[in-house]
């Protein structure tokens, strides 16, 4: 690990002033950044601790939800408002990592976590994301975990977050600040595709910090949502494929509105609004859900080891929509009292 200086900011302005130096990184829970520093993948000369800035709120705001960037994943997922009004988000967060990690991991850090591509972590290998211009050995190498959509010649990495898949489905907004002001980034525009600059994960600019995330009111989806995560182990494993699905249904099972975002398949949570629009007015059922899956996966391409993700993603989308249609308590595995069944 490279030597680095460490400071603790006591207010947002002090943190933003420290971030004017491009070699300074903010540290929140440290669960991703410190691993990357230990492997010399990231080598900031200075860390600024942003844990004590009063940005740890989880609260209702303007009919929706406000999540502080420094609120912990566990506090967010178990917050009564999130559990009751945003079960899709709660379930997705709880599908990630382990209880210990979720106690440390912050919401802002979750959005900013970096890919789990093995070459990215191994400084003895080439990797365009870590060292632009060196190549992408994953295309013909170890790509079992990697992307099938939105890839480029330069990079086929995936974004590993579970929380972000639900936030994409729920049309969240990321609120950021720098010394020059504040701006809001629609979640769809926060993460980016790799193109020929895979070293850039997202649209956060140098000197900017995430302050909070807002999620609009989504009560019509409370009764019918599901997060399905397919992985190698039941705990402590990143998604091979995950799906956040939410349905708004008429009493007779006709679809009024649908949301579907897919994780583990691209450099950002993958959502195709045309597939959701095509579901409106249809009856719930396998035929409609398969059609949505085909639309979402149009253009998907495997690279050998990850070819299995094409049928896996199709089946996971159908399963998530089917589970959502049956009802949220069923999807959450809860009994009538709201306890884990
Ligand atoms: C073994 C293991 C298993 C895991 N499994 C999963 C999983 O299954 N699903 C999943 O979703 N995640 C998983 N994770 C990832 C975990 O969720 C992230 O490491 C965590 O969310 C990062 O949050 P943090 O607060 O620790 O970020 P840090 O490690 O402190 O920071 C991460 C990055 O974000 C930047 N950053 C932090 N806060 C801000 C901010 N407010 N504004 C701008 N930049 C910021 C930092 O500079 C750094 O670059 C796993 C992690 C580990 C170690
Ligand atoms: S897929 Fe991306 S992160 Fe992985 S080796 Fe290729 S360039 Fe690096």
From TrEMBL:
Tell me the organism.
Massilia aurea
Segment forming the signal sequence: none
Give UniProt keywords alphabetically.
FAD, Flavoprotein, Oxidoreductase
Broad EC category: oxidoreductase
Read off the PANTHER family from this record: OXIDOREDUCTASE, XANTHINE DEHYDROGENASE SUBUNIT C-RELATED
- Give GO terms: molecular function aspect only: FAD binding; xanthine dehydrogenase activity
EC annotation from Swiss-Prot or TrEMBL: 1.17.1.4
Q: Where is the FAD-binding PCMH-type domain?
A: 1-220
Protein name, entry field: Xanthine dehydrogenase YagS FAD-binding subunit
Query: Which domain of life does the protein's organism represent?
Result: Bacteria
